[in-house]
Amino acid sequence: MDYLDRNCSIRWIVAILGLILASSAAGQVDASALRAKYGAPLRRETFAVRPGIEMIVDYSPTSNQACRLELPGEAPMPEDVAPGVGVNIHKPIDDLMEEIVPLSMRGKEQVKMCESAGVNSMCSIQYDKVSIVETFVAGRRGAVVAKFKVDCVR
Predict the structure, then answer these.
(1) How far apart are CA 73 and CA 9, in angstroms?
(2) Quick one: average pLDDT of 8-13?
(3) Helix, strand, coil proportions of the chain in percent (round to 5)?
(4) What is the span of the domain harbouring residue 91?
(5) 154 occurs within a structural domain
(6) How many CA atoms lie within 13 A of 118 on its CB side?
(7) Do 115 and 51 have their domain in common?
(8) Shared-domain flag, residues 25 and 85
(9) pLDDT over 90 for what percent of the chain?
(10) Structural domain tally of the chain?
(11) Could you tell me the CA-to-CA distances from 45 to 25, 28, 30, 54, 72 in Å, in that order?
């Protein structure tokens, strides 16, 4: 009788595990289903530009021109710095944006503005050839995005 009980228990466990695996596989979304529903994916690349800092680049669908660059709002805290020591974690991101999109490439500054709604805010500077937007959530910088004035619409 013990043998039969153990055998039935093992069968139940195997059956339950099989159902769990089958249901998780059925819940997966594949690339062809997404393409059928939403069309071709964006032309996007992610670059590791500094240790701990990734830049996302979206390209024009009609050329190899970058349409949009996105950097994190803050650089990671240096490992050799003690907690509580004042470190400007925005400066490495600002320097990187200046390196990638220098002032000479931006053109003449047109408009500078900030908007706020509750704890969320956004500041932008529009130039002749690019707009640079910074987002903030509860006073903390979320992302820095450069949007180029090229054909980026599908």
Answers:
(1) 54
(2) 68
(3) 30, 35, 35
(4) 42-148
(5) no
(6) 2
(7) yes
(8) no
(9) 38
(10) 2
(11) 28, 23, 20, 10, 15
